């Protein structure tokens, strides 16, 4: 695990400081579950994106929550959450950036993605100035984890066509260009169809997880064309086994995974702990530098 500082929370006048930590790092691989041999499956997410698809109840939100839990506990990254269902990621709201949680509101989602796009452009300008190709651990610019549940809600369900198309274009740009500047997109959909995930978008996700799918073709839409014909299809996963799915990495072969599951109470407890850590570290940073978190991006 990447070494991170232990933090001391000041719990108020007259009380003893409480030591908080340890914490995680977004530069570490994220534990997402176990493989069919019971071995842990850990995926490096930095400089990568993850697509999660599958039928309703397949376990997509559970996987998304496991990844967001790691990100929330990683004080070296910022969190942005777009939740078309409001309650799937709602528990992590206090861990998100100020203004970084959007519920079922397409206008707000587009505004947030536009802000990220501007920040991405500025980060690229900075990298060009420094003659570098990507952000690194310890940079003034922290990685962002952008979690989206559910893509189709914003890109195909609500609002005006023009706004939905704007959402799809902004998402595509973030997924295509965000990696080098530390923007990691984790996006879930219960509609793995070619209108929601065209091949050109799918191929930009280095990690793809297909929970149970209703057909071979929707499994292929997540994993990549031709895998079902070779016997790798999320259509064969039992509907009574949520959380099981096929995970594929760029250029790799699918592997069967049972994802880690955090129930609501556990998510809430981790979220409270992570929010306390984040408040503490932001307060310390403001005291030490006189700057608010994210100041490097605003400069
Ligand atoms: N890894 C897991 N282990 C055990 N149970 C799981 C796991 N993942 C999901 N489940 C169970 O399946 C249920 C549905 O999971 P989840 O809400 O993540 O599905 P989903 O694919 O996001 O569904 P929807 O598209 O309808 O939101 C959970 O409430 C939980 O009971």
Automatic annotation (TrEMBL):
It comes from the Bacteria. Residues 38-220 form the FtsK domain. PROSITE patterns: FTSK. The keyword Cytoplasm does not apply. ATP binds at residues 54-61. Keywords: ATP-binding, Nucleotide-binding. Pfam families: FtsK_SpoIIIE (PF01580). This is FtsK domain-containing protein. It comes from Asanoa iriomotensis.
């Amino acid at each position: 695990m990447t070494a991170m500082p232990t933090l001391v929370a000041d719990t108020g006048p007259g009380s003893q400081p409480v030591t908080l930590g340890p914490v995680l790092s977004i530069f570490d691989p994220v534990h997402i579950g176990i493989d069919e041999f019971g071995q842990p499956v850990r995926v490096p997410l930095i400089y990568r994106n993850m697509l999660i698809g599958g039928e309703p109840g397949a376990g997509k939100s559970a996987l998304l929550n496991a990844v967001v839990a790691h990100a929330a506990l990683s004080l070296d990254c910022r969190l942005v959450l777009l939740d078309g269902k409001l309650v799937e990621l709602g528990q992590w709201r206090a861990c998100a950036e100020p203004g970084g949680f959007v519920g079922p509101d397409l206008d707000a989602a587009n505004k947030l993605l536009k802000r990220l796009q501007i920040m991405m452009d500025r980060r690229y300008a900075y990298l060009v100035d420094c003659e570098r190709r990507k952000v690194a651990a310890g940079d003034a610019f922290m990685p962002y984890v952008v979690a989206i549940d559910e893509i189709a809600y914003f890109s195909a369900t609500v609002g005006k066509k023009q706004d939905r198309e704007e959402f799809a274009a902004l998402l595509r740009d973030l997924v295509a260009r965000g990696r080098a500047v530390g923007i990691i997109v984790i996006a879930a959909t219960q509609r793995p169809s070619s209108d929601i995930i065209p091949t050109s978008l799918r191929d930009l996700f280095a990690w793809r997880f297909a929970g149970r799918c209703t057909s071979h073709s929707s499994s292929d839409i997540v994993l990549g064309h031709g895998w079902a014909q070779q016997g790798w299809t999320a259509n064969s996963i039992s509907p009574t086994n949520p959380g099981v799915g096929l995970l594929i990495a760029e250029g790799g072969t699918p592997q069967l995974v049972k994802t880690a599951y955090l129930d609501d109470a556990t998510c809430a407890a981790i979220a409270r702990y992570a929010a306390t850590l984040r408040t503490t570290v932001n307060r310390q940073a403001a005291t030490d530098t006189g700057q608010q978190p994210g100041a490097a991006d605003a400069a």
